[in-house]
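ZP: hey, is the adenosine monophosphate complex queued? I don't see it on the tracker
AM: it wasn't, my bad. submitting now with these inputs:
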Amino acid sequence: MDPNKTVKQFHEMELDDRILKAISKLGWTYPTLIQEAAIPLLLEGKDVVVKARTGSGKTAAFALPVIQKILNSKLNAAEQAISALILSPSKELCQQTRAAMELMASKCGKVIRIVDVSSSDVVAQKHALSERPDIVITTPAKILTHLQSGAIDLKKLETLVVDEADLVFSFGFEKDFKKLVDFLPPIYQAVLVSATFTDDIKDMKNLILHNPAILKLEEPELVPESQLSHQRILAEENDKPAILCALLKLRLIRGKNVIFVNSVDRCYKLKLFLEQFSIKSCILNSELPTKIRIHTINQFNQGNYDFIIASDENMLENPGRVKSDTEAGASRGIDFQCVSNVINFDFPLDVNSYIHRAGRTARGTNKGCVLSFVSMKDKEVNDAVEDRLKSGYTSEDAIIKNYQFKLEEVEPFRYRAKDAWRAITRIAVHEARLREIKTEIFNNEKLKSFFADNNRELQVLRHDKPLKVVKIQPHLSHVPEYIVPKALKRLASSTNQRSSKQFKSFSAAKSTYESQQDNPLLCSDIDYAKKRGPRRK
Ligand code: AMP
């Protein structure tokens, strides 16, 4: 946020001092665009529909007014009751929202009670609900169960928030949601938050909102190009493993990465492939137990893993067929922190998926890159993505720059990768899926007793252990000097002698992409030697 811009600041928003203290502790200097627009409207009591991109600070846009309203009503000694209900499409999102809101209310002592009742532990949920918390966060299916069993009532509800509303409405929660409306009091304030506006939302918003203010902010769906670069490698299916392998083994990709593929099987195939080169990765897909997914993301956020392989299979291939209590896309809306690169190993099947995947990087003020492998069959979607990005950035120039990977430079990787990729048969993938799920369910049981407060013990439950269904060939993990492209050799050796900073990473060296001449794999030896200057002894 530009400090010279005249933005309304948090302390000008009639927020309680305790909230302001928490905001300051979080290190937020200015409200984001969506917060600046939404918070005053919500404090006025208006119903609001918010269209905001992922990572725009939308949680605080609704959460801060919710907390403020509860503090106000407590001043008037209002009876303890559920004041706010926050509905999210998945358990992961519920947990994330609760964690975020706890931080925002951290300076309010025990005045604000927040519970997340999206888990399947009904006894614990009933116990939590019996204490009449101020804020309940859950999925539509779960809240309906509790309402129908009489465990809670929403007679005193003041605010209803539907987060990621497009998913809530379109992936199987629609029926639950319609039933839920019958339990709501006649008057309440409603907020609907969504990254995209689908027809479902337009239809359904009439159910819960009264004369809402619609906030569609004039901002691109993605952060500016200066913060997020888009790169593409033109590669056919056969070339993709070799290129990825070369990029990783030559350490041209660094930092934390989310690699997207288009199916659960591909998650395992890629993990098994990388395993053969001693590259550890963990898997995130909607088949794994929720706790494991949350734990994997938490550990990724803590810096324990560099690679997560995620599939959006449910969202991409079976939209609308998700069971009511099934999570709607494992990665959607989940806040991966400090992701340097999003790698589309499989190009997304539609533009929205590209936007959502890209939203996993360049969050807050961090920089990020999206690197996509694009084959001939992906051309149409790739063009559509380009058009959407251009219109978002109002640019005439191509947004997705070609990362002209010289395959011949990494030919030796191709042979190694080809064999390794071929070794992963369908049977191996199937076996790996079974084995992974078994292990993770076992971990899940362990986690049950650990999750609450034994954070250190949780470190021993790693999710990036080798699946070992394909014979590991130890020589593959080593990159012999003769297969390193000439252009990189000098760099690599000078890196060993001097600062590792000089071995530019994919993410750190944004200039690498702006000026493709800086990419060692793109330049001739001579060009590169000139650029680096004489080699130091
Ligand atoms: P969200 O869109 O709610 O998922 O938020 C994305 C990220 O932005 C989260 O990690 C928040 O902690 C962070 N965030 C939210 N509001 C602000 C703010 N005003 N300044 C800086 N970071 C923020």
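AM: back. Confidence is low (pLDDT under 50) at residues 313-329, 495-537.
ZP: great, adding it to the tracker
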